[in-house]
Amino acid sequence: MKDSLLLAIRSDQRGSGLKSIKRALAATLIALALAACVDESATPDDVLATPTLMLATPTPAMTPTTVKVFTPLNFVAYRHKSGVFSVSQPDDWEVIDSSTDQRLSVRFVPPPGFGSRVIVEATNEGVLAQDQIHNKAESYIALNYTPNPAYHEVNRSDLPDGRIQAIYDYDDTHGGTGRETLTFQQVGPFLIVLRVFLANVDEASLSAGLDTMASSLIVDPQAAWGTSVAAINPAELIVANTLLWQSGDTTNVMGEVRNASPADATNVQAQITLCDRNGATLSPLSTGTGIKVIDRGGSAPFAISIQNLPRGVQICAQQASGEPAKPDPDYTTALSLTVTPSINSRGRLVLDSQVGNPGLAPVKNIHVALVVYDADNRVVGYGTVDSQAEILLYPGQTWSISYIFETLGGKADRYVALAEAQIVNPSNPSLNP
């Protein structure tokens, strides 16, 4: 190898000069390095064997995913066609409206690649007391959250502004995780449910936007929405638990009207037709119910008294009529009531009642209907008490009343009190200092 090197140098000296010498030296050094890598103990066959080509392990190809582009949200105003609520929404979000005549339900969904969403729901419940709102919230949670094992309740609380809030962690065990904030609030006659779900993967990009949407929700308590029922089928107003009895020259007919229609009913009239003992029809009688609005699924009592009818008359037909009740933010039946029966010194039934105002605003013009039922659930006694014009019942206050039943149509077994009142707007000048 040394002789080869000297020979190369001499040859280059005789040849093309210094540059050629440098190229020859580089080639020779490379040859020496390759020779040094050969194991001296290897056999010729080993040295001449085809070399194994070593390839680097390729990086696994990544599964294609949707790439999120984090751009600032551009908000636009959304107002539901019912006029009940409005909210600011990102302009590229999809709006899915699945509302019915009895419930508004609107879902706001971001573009593909995000897992978050916002849902606004509303029902026209009339003005509710706080304990009634709690009951509605419990029912909603039992229907929508309790059966779903993906939801785990973290916290539930009453907020200072009267809202009820529940927070849930979400994990569907298939990679979908996040946190949902559920809020109930009443505005006028509307019970509003707001559901804000923030997926964990969206926290950095959508957290602030969801907060903006939640805080922008506005509800109009004067919106004329609640039911699209144009008329109530008289067959859905059921006259029940009626009883006729005669005391002296007075004939009494008492009962109640049940509202089986899909809407709250008002201007409800019970029509009773009496026949004499021979079956001849007498003049039909008509009267209103004890309270102005009968909630769907609820009932209200009525009573008719007429003088100088012949003995032995009987009820030969009964029916009721009414119309859908329009939302009225100034009207409420959300009053607490207690009833205590007693017998006075003259042997008359006395019902003492306390009417409480559990709401957030004062009420006036309170009307109370007291109903007595026998063991067969027939109405055997009915009376009403109205507050004087100057009585104003503030939140948390109670009003005590007492009513004496001079006659009953049967033996008293149970007692019911119903009440309604007018809500006083705190902005009324008469309430300001």
Notes on the protein architecture:
The chain is α+β, with helices and mostly antiparallel strands. The protein has three domains: 75-219, Mog1/PsbP, alpha/beta/alpha sandwich (Protein Transport Mog1p, Chain A), CATH 3.40.1000; 234-324, Immunoglobulins (Immunoglobulin-like), CATH 2.60.40.10; 331-431, Immunoglobulin-like. It is 15% helix and 42% strand. It is built from five helices and 24 strands. The strands form six sheets. A seven-stranded antiparallel β-sheet has the order 3-4-5-9-8-7-6, sandwiched between helices. Strands 13, 14, 15 and 17 form a four-stranded antiparallel β-sheet that branches. A four-stranded antiparallel β-sheet has the order 18-24-21-22, with no helix packed on it. A hairpin with a 7-residue loop joins strand 4 (104-109) and strand 5 (117-124). It is elongated and about 85 Å long.
Rg estimate, integer Å: 42 Å
CATH homologous superfamily identity of the largest domain: Mog1/PsbP, alpha/beta/alpha sandwich
Shape: elongated
CATH architecture of the largest domain: 3-Layer(aba) Sandwich
Structural class: alpha+beta
Low-confidence stretches: 1-21, 32-63, 428-433
Q: Based on DSSP secondary structure assignment, what is the total number of beta strands?
A: 24
Strand content: 35-45%
Residue share in helix? 10-25%
H/E order of the elements?
HHHEEEEEHEEEEHEEEEEEEEEEEEEEE
Kindly provide the name of the CATH class of the largest domain.
Alpha Beta
Which assembly state applies to the chains in this document?
single chain
Adjacency order of strands in the biggest sheet: 3-4-5-9-8-7-6
- Kindly state the mean pLDDT as a whole number? 83
Number of helices: 5
The separation of the N and C termini measures: 116 Å
The biggest sheet amounts to:
7 strands, antiparallel
